[in-house]
């Protein structure tokens, strides 16, 4: 009797992660029924919208109905390109009189869809559905996907077991293969911008002017794609939307990837509905939980440390940074964001202290810049001490009487006035101490030495909020709160600092700091559109970046 005629169940997936299912997925070090960092098949959440059949954010459907519409919402294989491959091995003559079934079992099984290819069509195997005798005899071609991403590790960690059961008379044989959901991975700044997004301006003329300047700066940065307008006038496009991606290995060494547009856990934020308009071919959209619209849950409070190794641990996709605290609640932390990123088991969150800021977002003081040396990137932070030094240098050079702001109508205060303001100086020393404490935290968590940080001049001021008199916000528009377009181009807010000898000396210092890391700054006037509202360019935009390779956990 040949192997194909023996009564032995054998199901296989892409356990060696080379994009195909074959004999190399069994034997040797591979135990196909287990999933490890070295081997085990990966599947995707098939939640795009290839036919663009889902309702828009302008429709009257509820948030839950918007989120529920996607390609895996029913039992149709609308996007078979995103099915992970599986096969059952032939039974040959042993299939005579036998019945075979393939099903996901255990926790999370209800989220899994399994299809069998019959002729040229993919047919979903309903629970209890049997393979045909021909499929048992010759082997079945299968595909598997998920209806959702992993959201809470305590509920489901993304592990999937698929069981192949064959019964003939009183004899039953089974085999199992282990898979795991691809983690949702956030982009980092070593991945270049491919699409720049900004909210609609409505009747806000200042925002329309900002968008025009932003488009010009994007072109000067080398981006040829037009700006994409989010279907909302919620100015803060960074806060209600974050982009990640999921990937699995494909044939020939290529990756099969899907972008995931993530709506922030701020369900009362109406603008967040616009996230679902981005869903389409190759782009899924999800809605996180949460309540209200707390600042701590906004995605301006999330950054990503690029890939690195620290203390013997590799972080191939980097780590997520989440800020804690804000003007409303200094002890606040985003339970939903931490739960979601921990569930991905790929970019374990690092928490930084943002409680000293009015908005309380990490993008107000930290970012990461690509470099051609070392680990390939450098951290950067706002440096209030350097900001004060810029003004003091001008004062010592005899320019203390120069207006502190070059933007007309902002203030009549001079450099001398600013530096004589003891509270202002003390506030910036406190900000410097808070930032240095975060630098120390990043040294502890990621091995980033203080001398590695690019120091970007910036100043802070009290926000005159009675209930939080010590909370701070940007004095000049925060330069760190911008958009890194690629390895050498950065879009930042025009600084409107003192003019000495025909140039903005604060802006010149910012330019010099970025040039020290090989980055050219393109300045955009966002004073009225964003700065006066408490945010800057990063807060008021979003980006789709270059997709990365499939990471493993």
Give a written overview of the molecule.
Residues 172-546 form the Protein-arginine deiminase C-terminal domain. With 553 residues, the chain is of the alpha+beta class. It contains eight helices and 31 strands. It has helices at 63-68, 133-138, 205-220, 335-344, 384-399, 415-420, 422-446, 505-515; strands spanning 11-13, 41-43, 84-88, 99-105, 112-118, 121-124, 141-146, 159-168, 171-181, 185-186, 193-199, 228-230, 241-249, 255-263, 283-287, 302-305, 308-310, 313-315, 319-324, 350-353, 366-370, 377-383, 454-457, 460-462, 472-474, 483-484, 489-493, 499-500, 503-504, 520-524, 541-545. The strands form ten sheets. Strands 1-3-7-5-6 form a five-stranded antiparallel sheet, with no helix packed on it. It is elongated, with a radius of gyration of 27 Å. The relative contact order is 0.13. The mean pLDDT is 96.
- Uncertain runs are none
Structural class: alpha+beta
Percent of residues in helices: 10-25%
Summarize the biggest pleated sheet: 5 strands, antiparallel
Coarse shape = elongated
Strand segment count: 31
**Helical segment count:** 8
Distance between the termini: 41 Å
Mean pLDDT: 96
| Strand numbers in spatial order across the main sheet | 1-3-7-5-6
Tell me the Rg in angstroms. Answer: 27 Å
Beta fraction: 25-35%
List the topology elements:
Blueprint: E1 11-13, E2 41-43, H1 63-68, E3 84-88, E4 99-105, E5 112-118, E6 121-124, H2 133-138, E7 141-146, E8 159-168, E9 171-181, E10 185-186, E11 193-199, H3 205-220, E12 228-230, E13 241-249, E14 255-263, E15 283-287, E16 302-305, E17 308-310, E18 313-315, E19 319-324, H4 335-344, E20 350-353, E21 366-370, E22 377-383, H5 384-399, H6 415-420, H7 422-446, E23 454-457, E24 460-462, E25 472-474, E26 483-484, E27 489-493, E28 499-500, E29 503-504, H8 505-515, E30 520-524, E31 541-545
């Amino acid at each position: 009797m040949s192997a194909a005629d023996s009564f032995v169940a054998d199901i296989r997936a892409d356990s060696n992660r080379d994009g195909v299912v074959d004999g190399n997925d069994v034997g040797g070090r591979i135990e196909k029924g287990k999933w490890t960092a070295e081997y085990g098949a990966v599947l995707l959440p098939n939640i795009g919208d290839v036919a663009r059949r889902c309702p828009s954010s302008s429709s009257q459907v509820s948030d839950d109905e918007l989120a529920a519409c996607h390609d895996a919402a029913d039992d149709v294989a609308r996007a078979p390109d995103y099915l992970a491959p599986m096969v059952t091995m032939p039974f040959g003559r042993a299939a005579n009189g036998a019945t075979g079934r393939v099903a996901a079992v255990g926790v999370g099984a209800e989220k899994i869809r399994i299809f069998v290819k019959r002729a040229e069509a993919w047919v979903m195997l309903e629970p209890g559905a049997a393979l045909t005798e021909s499929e048992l005899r010759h082997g079945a071609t299968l595909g598997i996907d998920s209806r959702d991403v992993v959201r809470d590790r305590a509920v489901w960690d993304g592990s999937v077991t698929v069981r192949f059961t064959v019964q003939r008379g009183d004899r039953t044989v089974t085999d199992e293969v282990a898979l795991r959901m691809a983690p949702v991975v956030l982009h980092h700044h070593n991945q270049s911008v491919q699409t720049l997004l900004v909210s609609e301006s409505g009747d806000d003329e200042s925002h329309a002017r900002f968008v025009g300047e932003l488009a010009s700066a994007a072109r000067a940065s080398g981006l040829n794609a037009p700006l994409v307008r989010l279907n909302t006038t919620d100015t803060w496009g960074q806060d209600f939307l974050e982009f990640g991606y999921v990937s699995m290995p494909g044939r020939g060494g290529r990756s099969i990837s899907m972008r995931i547009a993530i709506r922030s856990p701020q369900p009362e934020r109406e603008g967040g509905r616009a996230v679902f308009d981005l869903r389409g071919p190759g782009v899924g959209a999800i809605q996180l939980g949460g309540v209200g619209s707390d600042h701590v849950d906004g995605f301006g409070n999330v950054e990503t440390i690029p890939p690195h190794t620290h203390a013997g641990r590799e972080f191939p996709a980097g780590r997520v940074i989440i800020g804690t605290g804000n003007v409303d609640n200094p002890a606040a932390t985003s339970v939903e964001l931490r739960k979601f990123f921990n569930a991905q088991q790929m970019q374990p969150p690092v928490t930084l202290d943002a409680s000293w800021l009015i908005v309380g977002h990490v993008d107000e003081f930290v970012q990461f810049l690509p470099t051609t040396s070392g680990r390939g990137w450098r951290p950067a932070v706002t440096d209030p001490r350097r900001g004060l030094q810029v003004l003091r240098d001008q004062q010592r050079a005899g320019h203390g009487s120069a207006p502190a702001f070059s933007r007309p109508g902002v203030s009549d205060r001079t450099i001398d006035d600013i530096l004589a303001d003891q509270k202002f100086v003390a506030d910036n020393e406190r900000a410097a101490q808070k930032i240095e404490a975060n630098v120390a935290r990043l040294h502890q968590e990621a091995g980033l030495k203080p001398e590695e940080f690019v120091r970007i001049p910036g100043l802070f001021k009290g926000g005159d909020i009675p209930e939080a008199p010590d909370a701070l916000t940007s004095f000049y528009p925060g330069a760190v709160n911008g958009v890194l377009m690629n390895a050498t181009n950065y879009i930042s807010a025009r600084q409107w600092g003192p003019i000495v000898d025909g140039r903005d000396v604060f802006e010149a210092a910012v330019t010099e700091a970025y040039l020290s890391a090989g980055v050219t700054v393109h300045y955009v006037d966002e004073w009225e559109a964003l700065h006066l509202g408490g945010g800057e360019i990063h807060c008021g935009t979003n980006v789709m970046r270059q997709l990365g390779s499939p990471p493993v956990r």
